[in-house]
Amino acid sequence: MATQECPLRCEISVPFPTNQMAEIALNSLCPDPEPRNSLVTKEFILSDNILKVYLVAMETRMLRVAVGAFFDLLTLVIESIDKFRV
Fold first, then answer.
1. Helix (H) or strand (E) holding 62
2. 3-state SS, residue 73
3. DSSP string, 2-60
4. pTM of the predicted protein model
5. Is the confidence at residue 76, as pLDDT, over 60?
6. CB of 13 within 8 A of CB of 51?
7. CB contact at 8 A, 39 and 62
8. CA 68 to CA 57: how far, in whole Å?
9. What value does the mean pLDDT of the chain take?
10. CB of 59 within 8 A of CB of 1?
11. With pLDDT > 90 as the criterion, what percentage of the chain qualifies?
């Protein structure tokens, strides 16, 4: 499978009911920096109660896997926040 000449990008905006919930999600989703040789780069930005996530990859498959993994983790974080009523 050939790699793309230009990087592929995905921008995801996740609104939360409160700033506190958005901050908890941010801290849960990006606890450690990505390894240097990672094929996907991630950037998280918190703007009030909106968590913005930017994913960049050179291959479609890698971007798809990263987006899927992000939504799996996001679902877990939201369920945890809801369970503990933060």
1. helix 60-84
2. helix
3. PPPSS-EEEEEEEE-SSHHHHHHHHHHH-SSPPPTT-SEEEEEEEETTEEEEEEEESSH
4. 0.85
5. yes
6. yes
7. yes
8. 14
9. 91
10. yes
11. 78
Q: Per residue in 19-33, pLDDT tens?
A: 999 999 999 998 777
Distance CA 4, CA 22 (A): 33
Query: For strand 40-47 and strand 8-15, is the pairing parallel, antiparallel, or unpaired?
Result: unpaired
Residues forming a β-bridge with 13: 52
**Helix (H/G/I), strand (E/B), else coil: 85:** coil
pLDDT of amino acid 3? 55
For residue 1, the surrounding DSSP H or E stretch is none
Give the pLDDT of residue 2. 52
Tens-place pLDDT, residues 59-70: 999 999 999 999
| Lookup result for tokens 């920096």 | 33
Q: Is 22 buried (19+), middle (13-18) or exposed (0-12) by CB count in 10 A?
A: buried
